[in-house]
Design brief:
The chain is mainly α and 185 residues long. It has 2 domains: 2-101, no CATH class; 105-177, no CATH class. 81% of the residues lie in helices and 0% in strands.
C-alpha cells in the first residue's frame, strides 16, 4: 500500500510540475524535496545536476540555435524549462528508489507484465552498452578523442534505435500470438 501511495504522490507531483509556470516555485519544490532527505542535500543537488546537465546543455543550445540567438525569448523560456527539468530529476532521485514498482503495480497483472518487459529490455541494453565500451577500450591503446567518441556515440545510438525497434516488433508478435492483446471481459 505504501508503494502505491508513493507512486501516486510521484505522479501527482510530476503533473503538478508541468502545470507550474514559475521557475522560483519549481526550484523551491526541488529544495523542499531534497529537504526530506535529511543530511544528503548537497550530495543530492550535485547528483541531480550531474544527471540533468547533458539534457540542460542540449535543450539550451538547441533553443538558442532555433531562436537564432533571441536572448529575450531565451530569458523567458529557458529558466522555466531548466527549473522544471531539475525539479523532475530531483524528484526521481528522491521518490523512485523508495518505491517497489512490483508491489505498486500489483493491482494490475498487465502493468506488472509490462514492467517486467521494460526491465528486461533495460538490463539487456545495459549489458550491450557495457560490451560496446569494452570493445572500444580493447581496440584503442589510449583514451579515444572527441571525434572517435562522437562517432562511437552516433553508431551506438543508431544501433540501439534499430535494436529497440526490432525487439518491440518481436515482442509484439509474440504477445499477439499468445492472445495478450485480446479484450479481457
Amino acid at each position: 500500500m505504501k508503494d502505491r501511495l508513493l507512486l501516486l504522490v510521484y505522479l501527482v507531483l510530476v503533473v503538478t510540475a508541468t502545470l507550474v509556470h514559475d521557475a522560483r516555485l519549481l526550484l523551491a519544490g526541488a529544495l523542499t524535496v531534497t529537504a526530506t532527505e535529511f543530511g544528503r542535500r548537497p550530495q543530492s543537488w550535485v547528483r541531480a545536476l550531474r544527471a540533468a546537465l547533458p539534457f540542460l546543455v542540449a535543450i539550451n543550445l538547441g533553443f538558442l540555435i532555433v531562436s537564432k540567438g533571441d536572448l529575450s525569448a531565451a530569458g523567458r523560456v529557458l529558466p522555466l524549462v531548466n527549473a522544471r527539468l531539475f525539479f523532475l530529476v530531483v524528484l526521481v532521485f528522491r521518490i523512485l528508489p523508495a518505491i517497489d514498482l512490483q508491489r505498486a503495480l500489483g493491482f494490475s497483472p498487465t502493468l506488472r507484465f509490462v514492467l517486467i518487459l521494460a526491465t528486461s529490455q533495460v538490463l539487456a541494453f545495459r549489458r550491450l552498452f557495457g560490451d560496446f565500451e569494452q570493445a572500444l577500450a580493447a581496440r584503442t591503446t589510449r583514451r579515444p578523442g572527441l571525434r572517435t567518441s562522437l562517432r562511437q556515440g552516433a553508431a551506438l545510438g543508431a544501433f540501439f534505435l534499430r535494436r529497440a525497434e526490432h525487439d518491440a516488433t518481436e515482442i509484439t508478435q509474440a504477445l499477439t500470438a499468445r492472445g495478450f492483446f485480446l479484450d479481457r471481459d
